[in-house]
Structure formats: C-alpha cells, structure tokens
Task: inverse folding
C-alpha cells in the first residue's frame, strides 16, 4: 500500500526554523509602595482577564486588596488561593490551579499574577508556563528570598517525591514588582533566611556590598524600609547580572550556588527543619573553610562571613554534624561528579575562584571536608 503514495524523491527530514523567542527582557521595579501600582502594571499586558495566585497566608494579608485594586481599574480579576508551604509546591497543586482557571473560563488571553513567596512564584510561574502553552505572568514577591532570588531568573517549577524543583520550565515574567513594605508582616525567621542569600551575593561578587550589609545589619534586622530597599536593589542587580551572562544555566550561573552544596546537605540531614537561608549561611562558612584547607580561599573570608551571619542572628557553624554523613548528603547534590561532591569556592571576599579548566565548581574529598568541619565547629547557633 505504501508504494501507492510514493511520488519519487521525498526528503527524509524537514528542517523547522527556530521559533521566535517568547521572552523579551523585563523590569524589576523595587520601591516601597509599588504594590499600589499593581493595576496599571497588570493592565499593560493587555490581557482580557487576570488571576491572582497566592497561598492562603498571603491571600489573607494582601490578596483581597490586590484584587479590589485591579477590579477598581476595570480589570476582570479572580483570586485563587492554595495552602501555604513547600509541601504544596507539587504537581497536584499545579493541576488544581490549572483546572480552576479552566473552570473560570480563562483562555489564552489571561494573565497570572504570582503574589507571594518563592513557593508561589515557582508554582504560579509554572502554571503560567503551561496553561494554554504559556500565558504572561507578573511576579509580585512578598518574601525577601523571593524578591532577591526566586523572582529573578525565569525558573519555575514544582517538587516531586524524588527531589525539589525536578519538573519545571524557564518562563520569564513580564515584570517583577518588589515592595519592601510588605516585608513588615514577614516572620523574623523568613526575613533572616532571605538575608543569608544577600550575604551570598556580596560574598561572591561584591565585597563592598558585604561590608555595607555588615554596617546596616541592625537596621536590616529592624526591618528598616530604606535599608531593605537598597539591599533588594543591589542583590537583584547582582543576580540579574549573573543570569544575563548564563540564562539557561550552562556555566557561570553556578556561582550562585556558593554555600549551597553544604547547605542543601544540611537541609536534607535536618529533614528540612532548618530554613534554607540558615543552611546556606552555615554552608558558606563550611565552604570557605574547605577553600582554606585547599589553599584557595583567603583566611579572613570565613571570619568575615561568620561575623556578618551572627550579626544578623543567623547560625554560623554546623553544630554536631559528622563528616561522613555530610559527605554522603553532599553527593546527592546535582553538581556531584564521579562520587565526589563539588562546591563553588571563593578566592577572596567578592571573588569566586575558577578551576584550572575554566569551570566554577571544585571537587571536595571526604578528608578535606572533615578537616574543614573541624575548624568550623566552634561557633554559636541560632535556629
Ligand atoms: N525560581 C528560583 O530561581 C528560585 C530561587 C530560590 C528559591 N526558590 C524557591 O523558593 C521557595 C522558597 O521561597 P520562600 O522562602 O519565599 O517560601 P514561601 O513562599 O513558602 O514563603 C514563606 C512563608 O512566608 C509566608 N509569607 C509570604 N509573604 C509574606 C508576608 N509578606 N508576610 C507574612 N507572611 C508571608 C508564606 O505564606 C509562607 O508561609 C522554595 O520552593 C525554593 O525552591 C526558587
Ligand atoms: Zn538559595
């Protein structure tokens, strides 16, 4: 039968030209009170209707007011809430949110507003990436971590039983609105957890910024609006700069993982009881110590990191963790190769040490880890 359709020479492959890029650049607007300008920013997308996605805490705190402001501006808007917490950053919640949008009658001309912390940004962003093969979305981060980290870089996704963030997509927002005023209601643990990522930004790329964080420590802890606004702006500049050089995470973007090889392992060993930023803070100190043992990191880096962390009431030492256990947990990290974990190491404050072959992560042996841990064991803990 097949011969019946043969019309002579048919090419065995057809070339499809590249699709036009979906994502233009976008702005991160950082200003106290910018949440009051949500409606005009939303309207600028030209969507026919809007869905604000928020967890139940944030929905209660800011959701109704946000919805009312959009409706007053004549925008058709729904507010959809899901239960707060990392445990709900799942495909089940993603499915429920998408189904809810379908039930509301949302089409391709809809726009999603992710109002909340990093869990909401990742989850609502992934709904936006996949609903009708992608609709525009605005990021309105309401935690410090979401403002300086999760909302910049276009990564969206959900967790699975096999690990965190394993299913997802790159999908950039149309705009990010970061209003430091909303941090007033943020619990202290959440604020401090975010501050650890800001310390990381200074540690890897800007020694002056790290010194400023130390100076502004007491004001930051008090929640001083102007200091937080400056912190968010500088951290976003640093993260955006790294992301711009390596948008799809093929190389240099790995430097944002400073403190994270050890940090993720500590989170895992604590069964995720310890907040992410706390673990990253300790991770930075241990990784500075690893760098010292390897002769890569200058001796004052670890002291400075520990001092700034303590000033911000963050833990600066790993407590009673054993090297073999930590080493095993570090092997689960995505950067591990050939049964050896790898870590980003600094040469000095504000500068990351490249490897001899131009990479950004250094191999860590169990002996080196044991020696590094030994020298960090004296230190106070605030958890
Ligand atoms: N996409 C990325 O590039 C990226 C980067 C870093 C982290 N993340 C993800 O971010 C998530 C962590 O984000 P998070 O720490 O913001 O957690 P989160 O979103 O769970 O927020 C923490 C808690 O604070 C509450 N909350 C949020 N804003 C509040 C406010 N203004 N006042 C009072 N309470 C408020 C939330 O309801 C929640 O209970 C993780 O899932 C992580 O994987 C993503
Ligand atoms: Zn982190």
Result:
């Amino acid at each position: 039968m097949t011969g019946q359709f043969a019309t002579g020479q048919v090419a065995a492959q057809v070339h499809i030209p590249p699709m036009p890029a979906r994502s233009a650049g976008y702005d991160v607007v950082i200003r106290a009170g910018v949440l009051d300008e949500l409606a005009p920013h939303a309207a600028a997308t030209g969507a026919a209707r809007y869905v604000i996605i928020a967890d139940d805490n944030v929905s209660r705190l800011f959701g109704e007011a946000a919805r009312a402001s959009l409706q007053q501006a004549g925008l058709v808007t729904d507010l959809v809430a899901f239960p707060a917490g990392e445990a709900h950053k799942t495909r089940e919640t993603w499915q429920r949110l998408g189904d809810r949008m379908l039930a509301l009658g949302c089409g391709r001309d809809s726009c999603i507003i992710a109002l909340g912390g990093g869990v909401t940004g990742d989850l609502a962003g992934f709904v936006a990436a996949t609903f009708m093969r992608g609709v525009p979305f605005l990021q309105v981060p309401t935690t410090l971590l979401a403002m300086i980290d999760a909302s910049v870089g276009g990564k969206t996704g959900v967790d699975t039983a096999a690990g965190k963030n394993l299913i997802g997509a790159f999908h950039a927002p149309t705009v990010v609105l970061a209003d430091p005023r909303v941090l007033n209601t943020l619990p202290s643990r959440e604020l401090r957890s975010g501050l650890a990522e800001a310390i990381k930004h200074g540690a890897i790329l800007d020694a002056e910024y790290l010194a400023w964080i130390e100076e502004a420590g007491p004001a930051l802890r008090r929640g001083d609006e102007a200091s937080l606004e400056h912190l968010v702006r500088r951290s976003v500049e640093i993260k955006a700069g790294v992301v711009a050089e390596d948008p799809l995470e093929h190389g240099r973007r790995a430097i944002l993982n400073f403190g994270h090889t050890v940090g993720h392992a500590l989170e895992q060993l604590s069964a995720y009881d310890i907040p992410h930023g706390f673990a990253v803070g300790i991770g930075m100190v241990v990784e500075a110590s690893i760098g010292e043992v390897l002769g890569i990191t200058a001796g004052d880096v670890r002291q400075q990191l520990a001092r700034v962390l303590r000033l911000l009431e963050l833990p600066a030492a790993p407590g009673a963790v054993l090297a073999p256990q930590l080493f095993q947990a570090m092997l689960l990290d995505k950067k591990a190769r050939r049964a050896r974990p790898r870590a980003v190491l600094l040469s000095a404050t504000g500068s990351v040490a490249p490897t001899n072959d131009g990479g950004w992560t250094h191999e860590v042996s169990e002996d080196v880890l044991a020696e590094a841990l030994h020298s960090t064991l004296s230190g106070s803990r605030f958890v």
